Amino acid sequence: MSATVSGGALSIGFDRDQLTQMFAHAPGFMALLVGPDHRFELTNPNYQKLIGHRDVLGRPLVEVLADAVDQGYLDLLDQVYRTGEAHRAESAFYAVQAAPGGEVRDCYVDFVFQPLKDAAGRVWGVFVQGVDVTARFQADQALALSEARYSALFAAMATGFCLIEMRFDADDRPVDYKILEGNAAFEEMTGLVDPYGKWVSEIAPGLERHWFELYGRVARTGEPARFENPADIFGRWYDVQALRIGPPDAGQVAILFNNITERKQSEARQNALLELSDAIRDLTDAGDIAQASAEVLARTMGVSRAGYGTVDTVGETITIERDFNQPGVTSIAGTLAFRDHGSYIDDIKRGETVVIADVAQDPRTAATAEVLKRISAGSFVNMPLMEQGRVVAMVFVNNATPRAYGDSDLRLMREVAERVRLATERARSEAALRDSEAQFRVFAQATPNQIWASWPDGSLYWFNPQVYAYSGLGEGELNGIDAWARIVHPDDLARVAESWSRSLASGQVYEAEFRIRRHDGAYRTFMSRAEPVHDEEGRITRWVGSNIDIEDLRRQAAELARFNETLEDQVAERTSALMQAEEALRQSQKMEAVGQLTGGIAHDFNNLLAGITGSLEIIGNRIAQGRFNDVERFAAAAQGAAKRAAALTHRLLAFSRRQTLDPKPTDPNRLIRGMEELIRRTTGPGVHLEVVAGAGLWPVLVDAHQLENAVLNLCINARDAMPDGGRLTIETGNRWIDARAAKVQDLEPGQYVSICVSDTGGGMAPEVAARAFEPFFTTKPLGEGTGLGLSMIYGFVRQSGGQVRIYSEPGQGAMICLYLPRHLGEVEEGEPVPEIAEAPRALAGETVMVVDDEPTVRMLVAEILHELGYQCIEASDGVTGLKLLQSGARIDLLVTDVGLPGGMNGRQMADAARLDRPDLKVLFITGYAENAVVGNGHLDPGMHVMTKPFAMEALGGRIRELIES
Fold this sequence. Notes:
By secondary structure, the chain is of the alpha+beta class. The protein has 28 helices and 35 strands. Strands 12, 13, 14, 15, 16, 17 and 18 form a seven-stranded antiparallel beta sheet that branches. Strands 8-7-6-11-10-9 form a six-stranded antiparallel beta sheet. Mean pLDDT is 83; it is low at 1-14, 654-658, 833-837 and 929-933.
């Protein structure tokens, strides 16, 4: 077997045995595949080891190495055979499975598939050669994993880490170091950006020499070091551990460090505050306290100047009594104008701390930088102090050169300012206490009363001169626990001692009356009172008391008591006379009101009765004469007069707030729309009517007819207020009335509907508006008004749970608003009242009982019932009616007046009848009903009401409606 390969083709000049021997001793694995089906011609032992010692010779690869086929190696061989181009791979993965379903062994191989060509350049086979690199690959992977873990740990460390390389000069002195590598915490704690491979002298010029000395010593000696040092260039303190790594001549040092700036600053603050406390502990002058605090502040912060001043925000000045200045710095004590040094006063006025690191760079001070530098204020902090929301003073620090001020500096300034404030308040309080004690002593010496003081245990230790002058004893003779007992009357001593002991134990105010012996042996009565004095923690520190001579007062009180005994009789007699006079006045006013009422009613009813009786008389004459043409006109005139009389009666009932209402859910907008044409005709062409209906208006529960009357009355009043014409506006709206507004309006808080009628007339004076709801009060000429209109409206609205209010000024028109409670139910659609001929007829046997003491009314109701086909039972009083109701007769509906003779009214009769007939339906017909009878205007279920007078057609329709309900 021989072959020649040139330019990529392999030339084989060995026989098969020689080739087999050469394959066997090859260091890697080898195989010779022949033909397009890649039939194994030769393999060496290493290849057999790789594939699991499978029998492959003379067989195509697809039959013997299914695992290689599945992993794409057959495709690669096909590609090499087809293209004639070699294929190389490194660390290629090969999952070896020698037997189907057997163990899988992961291998990694470097290999080459080399095409074998004949002299004509045709590929006749593929030479496979490679090395099993599984062990190397796994070692590399383990190393990479280890390095990844190290890198992750390195990056995640909160402690700063860096590796440096020291540089020494010719004399072996450390002069610089290069940063080789570091973690994120290193960059964060130093603020250095991309420092690796750079010398510190380049990226942090000015770094203190002690850093070089310390790291150089570690590099040379190999001895680790642990220390805490500041790095001013970074503005931080560090806790550092340094150790040498690698050979000594490499000069490499590994550094671990933490930022301890905050701890160091906190320690400095605490030390400064301790120093401040020691410095101001015994100071009592506010100026000395401020000066001591300024010195501590300046020395701790290392600034040129510190001080305290009072601020005038109006004059924009600061007054500095004293300041602390480092050597060579001039004091700025005195009054300075802020505007001469910049615009930052605007910040101070707002209570904001002003921090300026460089006056030449800050826009607030750039224009005045030279002025500030001349007073050693190249940078400064001004911290305003507030009292009751305004700036009153300021703590400040100045430094001659630019300087950054951190949060720690500001915290220290705030804490110092607070200590100074507390110390100043303490000093002022102590001074005030000394002044107060001095004033107390002067007062106690000057007052004519006896003043004394005691310790908390009751031991008296001080008396004013008045005590000694009264008792005749010498100074100090009353000091102690019980020495005072020698001047107390023996009969009072036990009681007084018990009261004093009780106050000492409870801390309550001590009060007692007892007799004290005078220097001549006489006893006089004193009122003794003492109060405890407490410290800041509430503990009693002493008692201060006084004794007041009340002997003369007691005698005068006895004389006054004797006089008062006779005075009561005199007062009682005078009071009785006044009450009689007042009752007489009330009776007179009542009679005057009754006179006005009866006079007005008589006048109106005489007019109305004249229309009724006259019309009826003419009707009678015409019927007698057989002249029926004009009967309808006179009947209409009589009905009109009767309806006006009914309206006047309703006004009187509404005024008394005792009318029987028939409240139903009502839509005020719909009601007013229905009245609009009537109002236009009533007010006339000279009045422009405008209706402003509120959107989404809530319903109200009212008697719709009474509401119509109320609105019409208000419109007529508005018309009369505009004799020359004007604008009349009716406006509705929803209103929420809260507790405060409800109290003013005399209402319950909640939801209301307002109906307001306003005009452009002359308005009302306050005194007129105040009396507008009074009965009979009117501003109209005599004979043009009864004065009951607004009274009727007021009575109706109040009875409906609402309120009426007048808003008016003279010359500005008037607006009267009705406020009615919102009803949460739905509004029912009204139905027209049928004519008698159209009213629904009775069903067979339906019976209605009519009870009324007025024969005419009873007759008319019975007539209507007979016309409609009802059976009718009549009774003239409640007792007779109840007997009939208690019988077994069929009664589908009870129609009764409320006010009945015989000791039983209609409501009582109906209630008694319902005991036997619980489903009895009742219709009250009444011209006047007591609230107690009808339940304050509201009826029980199944009870209804119609107010006299009423249309007979309406009665018939109502009876049918109730029977069917």
